[in-house]
Amino acid sequence: MSEQKVVHETVARANVFDKYISSETIFKSNREMLRPSYIPKILPHREREIDQLAGIVSTGLRGDRPSNVLIFGKTGTGKTATVKFIANEAARVNSAGSGIDFIYVNCCEVDTNYSVLQHMANKFIENPEERAPYNGWSIERVYSLFKEMVDKQKRLLIVVLDELDRLVYKTGDDLLYNLSRINDDLVNSKVSLVGIANDLKFTDFLDARVKSRLGEERIVFSPYDAKELSDILKIRADMVFAQGALSDDVIPLCAALAAQEHGDARRALELLRVAAESAEREGRSIVSAGDVLQAKNKIELDTVTETVKTLPSQSKMLLLSMIIYAEKRRIMTTGDIYGTYRNLCNSIGVQPLTQRRIGDLISELDMLGIVRARVRSFGRGGRTKEIELSVPLNETRELLVDDELLSSYKNARAKFQTTLI
DNA sequence: AGTCCACAGGAAGGGCAGGCGA
DNA sequence: TCGCCTGCCCTTCCTGTGGACT
């Protein structure tokens, strides 16, 4: 094909993006403002909490070490946004020489004592060769490096540990014990801790000394109600959407649906964003309540898909066993599932795990919301977990058999079903 | 009141991977 | 290359448990 002809065809043919670019736009500015990572300049209905935290942090502006703080509240109640808001405000004062630095760690992403220390220490080290490795060092060594780096800064450092309850449940309170007494070893710098947690009860797992040092101040974030969520959505909608792009019932519906989920502002914003993007893709200029309901279903399904896809192979095998068993009976016990799981393993030539391990994997699936499990006693029938799937069977089965390991299940299915009976 | 069932779940430890320093 | 470190996945062993049954 001549070069001239290629150019001609490129000009003549409609581009695949044309219909999306030329359609009337719903968004007037950056839609990233609807994502949880965006920290707005105003946080409606969090004035009291902001004031409390600012009051605590302001001690640092006068050269003293602020008290350690524990912040509690359910998902989407504005805990992280409030802390980051305060950090931004402190950064503005920093330019006038306040000397406060915030270091933020999400303990969901960085979820071992070692990796938290490694992550924090490396924040201060520019040269990659001088950084702590992902593993290989003793915890004491990484901790010493962190202390050394902090002391070099000659500043007040506020360490924010988000999702702290998860870290404590997973690894205990050793890290908090060390961090809460770090100031004893520092000469030039000071460290304060801000712990953010969903679960109020996680402090029961802390050593008494850690508990008292860490919880010098406590702030509790209550869930937003539908009215408050509406206010939040209206402010963001004014910033992001074109005039008249939302029908009148969209914001109240998003707020009402999110209020049902323990007042989760993150969910409310996600509903609004997904609904608007769906209307935009279909070339419409107005978002309707129907888009919001569709968005709700899409988000739920996407969450399940993402969770199932990222499961380890043995958990996928276990989940597939549950789906197979659920075709016979909706509610099942650990013993029921284990029998099916072993048959499935044999049919596709995989070494099965022990029942003890499977018990743990069932608990993990329960925590992820894929199944609902509760311990029940059947008297002489024994004590076991009663398990019910919380995901759609057909869609989840299709996702699972796409897995490399389980693809052979398709072939072995006929053989397997005879062994199951 | 004691027995029994079918596990739940804690504790301890093995094996492995990935990385470091000597 | 070897010893050491941490994290992770897993097994084995063990005790505890709730409620129906005897």
Name the features.
single chain; 421 residues; alpha/beta; Rossmann fold; Helicase, Ruva Protein, domain 3; Arc Repressor Mutant, subunit A; 3 domains; three-stranded antiparallel β-sheet; 8 strands; 53% helix; disordered N terminus; DNA-binding
What does this structure look like?
This protein has 421 residues and is α/β, with parallel strands linked by helices. The protein folds into 3 domains: 47-221, Rossmann fold (3-Layer(aba) Sandwich); 224-307, Orthogonal Bundle (Helicase, Ruva Protein, domain 3); 311-409, Arc Repressor Mutant, subunit A, CATH 1.10.10. 53% of the residues lie in helices and 12% in strands. The chain has 18 helices and 8 strands. A 5-stranded parallel beta sheet has the order 2-3-4-1-5, sandwiched between helices. The protein has a 3-stranded antiparallel beta sheet with strand order 6-8-7. 35% of the residues are buried. The structure holds a DNA duplex (22 and 22 nucleotides).
